[in-house]
Structure formats: C-alpha cells, structure tokens
Amino acid sequence: MVDINISYGNDISGRVPEGDPATAWERRRDEYKLVSPLNRRKFKVIVVGTGLAGAGCAAALGELGYQVSNYTFHDSSRRAHSVAAQGGINAARARKVDNDSIHRFVKDTVKGGDYRGREADAFRLAEESVRVIDHMNGIGAPFAREYGGELATRSFGGVQVSRTYYTRGQTGQQLQVSAHRALQRQVAAGTVTLHTYSEMLDLIVKDGRAVGIVSRNLRTGEISAETAHAVVLATGGYGNVFHKSTLAKNSNCTAAWRAHRRGAYFASPSYIQFHPTALPISNKFQSKTTLMSESLRNDGRIWVPKKAGDERPANEIPEDERDYYLERKYPAFANLTPRDIASRAAREQIESGHGVGPLKNSVYLDFRDAKQRLGVKVLDERYGNLFEMYQDATGEDPHEVPMRIAPGAHFAMGGLWSDYDQMTNIPGLFVGGEAGWGYHGANRLGANSLLSACVDGWFTLPYSVPNYLADQLGTAPLDLQDDAVITTLREVRERVNRLVGIKGKTPTDHFHARLGEILYEGCGVSRNEEKLTRAIEQIRQLRDEFYRDLFVPGTGETYNQELERAGRVEDYLYLAELMCVDALDRRESAGAHFREEFQTEDGEAARNDEDWCFVSAWEEGPDGAHIRHAEPLHFEAIKLQTRNYK
C-alpha cells in the first residue's frame, strides 16, 4: 500500500465581507485604501502573464500610474493562450427579453460549480460582467451584432438564457488582441516594461512577503531577479499536466507551482474540466487534442447509435436507431448541459461500446437538422471558421457528415488559493485568471472563463493591489543584493544545472506522455480509491525514473527548448501527485470531481454538504507532507440544493 502523508491544518478565512453577498463587492471597494496619483509612480508591481488577466491588470495599473514590469515567455503579449477561447464571454446585461438577471447569473454559476466556489465571488463576477462587455467593446473587440446594431448573444452550457457575447468562433483571439493593444499603449507611455521570452522560475519571499521573482531569458539562458512591492501571477491553468489537452503546448504550471513551493496554498487541484467537444485522439503519437467551441452545442445535436458496435456510416443510421442521449437524460437543458455532465455522459456511451469513429472513442455532433432549419448561410455566419477548422483537422465536412467529438482535458478550476481580494496567503502575492481558483467551484460554465480573466485583470486587481500597496508607502523594492534574492537565484541555477546534469537517455516528452496516460486513467473524467492510489504510486515511480534517466541536450546558458520542457514536466510530476491526493482525500462527488463510490442511483454526482462543503487549500510541509487547510463555504442567496438539469 502506498504511503500518502496527509495532515490537516487549521480552517482559513476568505475574508469575504459579512452580510449580503450581493453587495459585498460594493462594500469592499468602499473600504479599500487608496494611493494618490502622485504616489503611484513610487510603487512597482510585477505582473507575470499577458493573457486577458495579466494584460488587463498590467495595462490598468499602468494607466493608473504605477510602475509595472510585465513578463511573458512568448515573443509577443498577444500570443497568450487566451487567444484559444472560441465561443464567447458571458455577461448579465439582460438585453434579451428572456428574464435573465444578475441573480440568475449567480445561480447558474454557483449551481454549475456544484456549490464548491464562493458565492460572493460569483456575485462580483456577475456585477462586473456588465462593465466588462462595455469596456472590451470600447477598446475594440468586434462583437457580433444584430441587424439593428445591438450586440448579439447566444446560449452556452448550463444556462437557459442567452447571455454569451461572441465574435464568431474567435472571441478569445479578438479580446486578446484588444487587451494587447491596451497593454502596448502603456508600454509606449513608459508605465509598463514588457519582458518577452522570459519565464518565471521562482518567487522571492522575504519575511513572509512576496517581493519579486526569478526568471530565465529563454533566448540567452540568463537567469536574473527583479524585485517589486507586489507580484501578480496570471499565468493560466495546468491542464497540460495530462499531456494531451486542449491547451497550447507551452502552457504550464511552473510559476504557480514555484509559488506553492514557497508557501502559497494550492486550492482544489483535482478539479479539472474535461471539455465535451474536443476532437478525439486519433493515434498515440498525437501531441495534443483540439478544442471545438461549446457554442456548437446550440445547434448541433449529440448522439450515438442505439446498437453497440454499429459500423454503419452516420448518415446511413436511421433516426429511430439514434440515441440523442443528452436530450433523453436531461430534457430541460438537453445538449446544453454543463460540461462535466456532458463529458461523463459521453464517456459512459464510449465505454459501453456505443463509441463511433475508427477508434470507437467519440460521439457524434450533428448539424443535419440545423442545416434544414436554418440553412448553410446562417450556420456559416455563426460557426464558419469552426467548420473550416474541423475540416482542416479531419478532412471531413461537417456540413455533410456529423462531427466526431470526445472529452478532452481542458480547464483547471483549481489553482493558487486566494482570498476575496485575490491575494494568496503570502502577503503581496496576488493571483488572477485561471492561475487562481475563484468563481468556478468544481465545474466552470462555458464562457465564464474569458469573463473571469477580464474581471480579475481590469476590475478586481486594479482595486485590491493598491489597497495592499497603500501600507508600503515610503518603502523601496528589496535590494538585489539581499540574501533572499541571492539565495533564490542560487537555488534556481542549481535546479537548472541538476536537470542538465542527469545525462540519462530518455527525452522529456516521453515522461510527460506517460504521466498523461497515468492521469487520464487514474484522475480523469471519473475516479475511485483504487485508481487514485495506483496513480500516486505510478507517479512517484515515474518521478524517480525522471531523475535517473532524463536526457536534456545542450546547456542552460543558451536557447534550449528541451530544458524548458524538462523544468515544466518536473513540476507536473509533483503537481500530479497533489491532484490525486486531493481527489483521494475528497470523499464525495462534486462537479468535475466524480468519485465512482459516491453517486446516486441514477449515476449522478452525490455531493456531501455535511462533511465537504469547503475548499481544500493545500500546503507543502517541510518534509514534503501534504497539509490540507479548509475554507468553509456559505450560501445565503443561492441555497444548497441537489444539482438537477432534468
């Protein structure tokens, strides 16, 4: 039996203002300390990441007059992974006459997250969503419009209203371009210094406060430090731990994980969303999976043959021999059920022998009926670039044959724990976007990702960071000759040299691929105690092999992509264990965390609110032990209830 060293710490507070959660954000903003315009240039803030959260935060703080140092490992801020989001961004503007409201937005978000996120955070998300759309529209995002000029909306999973604003299937890309332009305006103004090709490798902590970072120039190999009054991490999610995921190959967990190793709590690491409309894996040599927007589920119908092992082409299977299983099981939401439910349902069909395609590992997403109802022109107006992308990837025309889709590792609801002000348990270290854990609970609703990143970057951190800075007036950033800086620099260089010096025979990607196989099997769409225990043992064995037999060619003093990957995979090998430990520890099913031992008679997730209505926030002990703290969750406006989409 594998030894899993878990201990339990004290409960922690999210510092949510007492009282009505609907007014918590307004009241908290009024409490925040301010920094006068003439004093802002005396403060320096490091922002790591240039996606919608990072670029928004850096641009907003720069616009306010702070000194901002912004880091990205890309060659340009516009290449951040926010560009990959396709379908849209939610907002509770209620411009459609469909009875939407801020309360309904919050209810959908809290319920969609299976009551494992902060209720007050969801209210902030809803409240600021109105400003986000107007702001992004104002800085140039070309949202789709109705004939009369009104911004157009559509529906997404987990809702029964039309609140998702979009730019065809390019919403993330267009929002990122707009944020990039706003950031570059501040670079030109001299308030933001942009560091490209620079990867954060560690956090500098002095007297318990975050005071800077250590980074490596990916072109030259130079390792250097920079200090500041505060650090913001907006470095995205960790879905690439599964190797084959919908994320860009360079997306990684290193910045967040290094902060965790320096004492920052990691919240709900096992909450990983599997997107139900990813393209299926076609062979073991495939490097990643490809995402197809959830917006396709507005008009596409999902089905499998009623007969297991049916070999006939899709168009030859008559209507009465098709099982539209989401419409059958969840008639109220049908094909727009939340992602965790849709992914589990697809996995059930595949594992029961009803899968389709050459490897029998997918289900159909069919636009036949929509084509007859709407016509090709309307479908292409809504999804044309997505149809083109699918045809480029598969050689099949979705106008003529159904798409084939399957669940793929996608979004991390877990991340660095932060309080209501977006500050971690390390004072001075803030977190935004997918690098954090807020808003989404155990399952993110589609189109809330772009929204949460924008809310954090433009409308939360620019308030909460100055509140922290106000008490630092009169202090200077830590001297680069301080022992804390020198020690952190030395430890980073030792780590890089250790990876290069292993001199084994196995390349990094081999270890990453094997780790992905372990996680898909042990900590995937569904989990159980036996699978998780075995996965922890396999991860530890793989990690030992990594340190014995890793092969990294070249040196650390130059451009070396294999070294970059090795550092990221090393961190994944530790994060993966914590994911499995968290999943093993949480003895309930909630959202994307589906423990097979805890399900209802009809196969739905069985939540345990009496024992598990809290957020798990993990600390790493001095001996490597996993220490679990808990932040209790309270629901006042959206009362706890069984999740039901039928």
UniProtKB/TrEMBL annotation:
NCBIfam families in UniProt: PRK07573.1 (NF005749), sdhA_Bsu (TIGR01811)
Keywords: Flavoprotein, Oxidoreductase
Descriptive protein name: Succinate dehydrogenase flavoprotein subunit
Keyword Flavoprotein: yes
Segments forming domain Fumarate reductase/succinate dehydrogenase flavoprotein-like C-terminal: 512-645
Active-site residue list: 339
A GO BP annotation: anaerobic respiration
Gene: sdhA
GO molecular function terms listed in the Swiss-Prot or TrEMBL record: electron transfer activity; flavin adenine dinucleotide binding; steroid dehydrogenase activity, acting on the CH-CH group of donors; succinate dehydrogenase activity
